[in-house]
């Protein structure tokens, strides 16, 4: 293996704190070809599909990648905007907002990059951007509030794989989740209150989270528990009685049992339970994407109305809300404590002088730069 080195490294160069903000990913375009590339990378991840590799390769390449891309492309086309994928454009805006907040609170230089676990910009590309900026300390923040092996764990794998190719490996910290962070919970509650104030309040509030196979929970994945905790804390902030809210799981894939109750089946049954006006929020998604804009705001709405419901209201993800950016910035600032850039005694002048002295010594010993 050839490692990524720094043959042009200049001795005495200042160091930077690098922050990588990542999300799940998106195809490059709403086309079958782009979806095939994206789904091949996504569905081949062993963290996502825990299945014997040889058999899964045959199913993936023999059936799924020959049928699913065209269907998925049509769905992506319905949500694609002028700036491309909503998930990518929103995540980039989130990164900029967080970078501005963190920079104001830091004492030393900091660089923020945005990456996607699947698709572009890749985790490796985001890390390379930080490496070229001189980052010797890295904080990784996957935008998954509730830890799951198939999301947060997979991001850790990708970061580890990318860094395994670096010759000079930086200090690295990894945020594994923030499902019960007070600022995150309050931002969710505030977004729901504001939505109610503007659009009215439904009879029932449904917390819909992305599903995972039930077997993952049985083998110790904490995701289900974290989803329940998030929903309960938000409901408490809203003073909601237990019979006015519930948790469901969406985006089932394949024939095996996933976490239940299923979102679509629950929504279809709510009118028979007397719920005529339904509000749905998806706290596990930090940015609106195919699963919220198409699966919930579109398909689930149609299913509810067809089942006898009268009003369906999707409450948007936190996206670029100010309180969301504040919460993420606070999370970052807490996790970088103890590093030089977060120290109020950071002395840029002294570090620059020390760097110049170190470079002079290196040059005297024969260094090229």
TrEMBL record:
GO molecular function, one term: metal ion binding
Cross-referenced PROSITE patterns: FERROCHELATASE (PS00534)
Signal peptide: none
Gene3D superfamilies noted in UniProt: 3.40.50.1400
Compartment annotation: Cytoplasm
Substrates-to-products reaction catalysed: heme b + 2 H(+) = protoporphyrin IX + Fe(2+); Fe-coproporphyrin III + 2 H(+) = coproporphyrin III + Fe(2+)
Enzyme Commission designation: 4.98.1.1
Matching InterPro entries: Ferrochelatase (IPR001015), Ferrochelatase_AS (IPR019772), Ferrochelatase_C (IPR033644), Ferrochelatase_N (IPR033659)
Swiss-Prot/TrEMBL keywords: Cytoplasm, Heme biosynthesis, Iron, Lyase, Metal-binding, Porphyrin biosynthesis
Biological function: Catalyzes the ferrous insertion into protoporphyrin IX.
Homology family: Belongs to the ferrochelatase family.
Name by which UniProt lists this protein: Ferrochelatase
